[in-house]
Amino acid sequence: MADYFTHFSCLLDVGTPANAARALDLYNALSEAGASEEPPSDGFLLSIQPEHGGSALWMRDDVTGDPERVIQFVKRCATEFQLTGRWGFQYANTCSKPRLDGFGGGAHVLDLGAGETIAWTYTDGWLASVLDGGDGDA
Q1: pTM for the whole thing?
Q2: Other residues' Cβ atoms within 10 Å of the Cβ of residue 49
Q3: Could you give the CA distance from residue 76 to residue 97 in angstroms, rounded to a whole number?
Q4: Can you list the alpha helix ranges (DSSP code H) found in 59-117?
Q5: H or E segment and range at residue 10
Q6: I want to staple 61 with a disulfide (CB 3.0 to 4.6 A). Which of 5, 65, 108, 118 is the partner?
Q7: What is the pLDDT of residues 102-119, one digit of tens each?
Q8: CA distance linking residue 107 with residue 96, whole number of Å
Q9: Which is nearest to 71 in space by CA: 6, 5, 3?
Q10: Domains annotated on the chain, with CATH
Q11: What are phi and psi of 49, to 5 degrees?
């Protein structure tokens, strides 16, 4: 039996160390909500990174993670802390054994001020589209 994983590691600067500390409360609330879902969300790990001034949050997977949970959290932080500009991250999908559907990944970019997606890509969908004769444009 193969195990499937989603890996990522990214930073979000929330402006101040005080905001970073408050972001931990937002994270805990999101984690509790994810744990009550059926099936539970894989979530992600979060810590404050002192080497980045204490205002940067490091989000990453444990064994596997949930990119959608990261996006929800970043949008919540953007609203709470009035963040602006663009933010994005990429993730990799891997498998413990060679499988035809076991590898891929994607990337997501948000406009923090608007709380909206600017662009995203998912390589599995892209590959299938091009193989079916498409040009690879979304």
Answers
A1: 0.89
A2: 14
A3: 36
A4: 67-80
A5: strand 9-13
A6: 65
A7: 899 999 999 999 999 999
A8: 22
A9: 6
A10: 4-131 (3.30.70)
A11: -105, 100
